[in-house]
Amino acid sequence: MKTKQFILGVALSAVVGGGVAVGSYKMLEDEQVLQTEQQYPNNVRYTSDMRSSNAVVPEGLNFIKAASVSTPAVVHVMTEYSVRSSDSYSQMDPFLREFFGDGFGQRVPRGPQLGSGSGVIIASNGYIVTNNHVIDKADKIEVVLDDKRKFEAKLVGTDPTTDIALLKVETDNLPTIRYGNSDDLQVGEWVLAVGNPMNLTSTVTAGIVSAKGRNINILRRSEARDMSIESFIQTDAAVNPGNSGGALVNLNGDLVGINTAIASQTGSFAGYSFAVPSSIVSKVVDDLLKYGEVQRALLGASIQEIDAAFAKEKGIKTLNGVYIAQIAQKSGAEEAGLKAGDVITAVNGVAVGKSSQLLEQIARYRPGDKVKVSYVRDGKDRTANVTLKNLNNSTELVKRSEAKAVSFDGATFEPVSKQEMSKLGIDGGAKISDVRNSKFRETGMKDGFIITRIDKYEVHEPADVEKYLKSFSGGVVYIEGVYPDGLKAYYPIGKG
Q1: Which tens digits make up the pLDDT trace of 204-230?
Q2: Per residue in 156-200, pLDDT tens?
Q3: Residues 222 and 363 grouped into a single domain
Q4: Which residues lie below 8 Å from residue 35, measured CB to CB, with a gap of 6+?
Q5: Are residues 252 and 209 in the same domain?
Q6: Which residues are designated catalytic?
Q7: In a shared domain, residues 312 and 288
Q8: Is 242 labeled as ligand-binding?
Q9: Is 243 annotated as a binding residue?
Q10: Is 170 found in the same domain as 79?
Q11: CATH number for 332
């Protein structure tokens, strides 16, 4: 009996001891895991669970084709910005600014600031479309292709009113994305966003079209202001900083939009993103290539959204349309017989239920084009053929001529590049050189100064300098301009 009790006691002790050992090991293991996790404060974790990838994808949910077609044609746009004297001036103590005036400020030596975004190759000979805000005011623009080749890019032209810019790199045989028809997109349709968010190159995300014709008033906060055209494609594809200028493609890999903005309280993706539709992109790019600037067609009417309260106030029987608040004199709308109080419902047969949709339709045309406008007046459906005009109430197309360098009073005046215009926020000018050997040396002007105004006249090209200075017979004339680093200056010059 004692022997049996002894053996049973030994066995029980072994079981209890083993349990304690296992429990102690698990406690140590949990503690080690906790310690390991605390080494990764950025919430990045390793995963080691390997599963078979031979999954059957339902028809319509396979994004492989669209990704493989579009990814090689989406590039990384890298920009460089020098710190201008105005930047350091803006950080100056307010008392010093008030005491010394606008001309005071010390230049703070700092390194260049860097930025990045995305772009889409639309022509095999190196034309790339991106957002204007991606390259705005950049000193240097570089493009990194999907195959890691790097090129310096030249700015061909910009359109702040649609936030589109066109770049050019000197190379051939590049992969391209063909335009798709953004009009054919339907709410609920799958789309892919391709770009370089957070410097993660060639990133593809998927989502659906959440809405069309969306106006988020983001461009009205820029220099575009009242001329802006916002009729964005809204999607829930994940888009983050760095995606701007990248491609929004359909399941065929066709370009249906240029990713531009996100709706976020934090600055990172929070559910919705917005893209400029390809119908607008293709027109803007075509204008920049053919004319050097965008040809804006205008209906010639001030418009207003219609909601239930406004409709009740005005006695309007429909909510699907755009109310004409005012008609501009000598405009295409006035000549076609449109009046204040009319409600526009369609342009060339395409329904327009809100202002953004109407602006998008008109933005597809150039001055001189005719459109059929459907509208409601006194409860009756009517139509009018409207000849669209430009800001000057003319049907002429404005083509930016290639400015040439001129010599005057011993100095040389050269045209300003589009990249310098974008960087400095100017529209034209004349860059001076050889000041030391000219009559301009007495003013204190330095080489590289860009003249933007002489007295009350704007200088758009070098020929303007000679034309305006010759027109003054005597007295002192003030020359206004800016240096390449952003420093503005004024110089008096005597004539007579």
Answers
A1: 999 999 999 988 877 765 554 567 888
A2: 999 999 999 999 999 999 999 999 999 999 999 999 999 999 888
A3: no
A4: none
A5: yes
A6: 133, 163, 244
A7: no
A8: yes
A9: yes
A10: yes
A11: 2.30.42.10
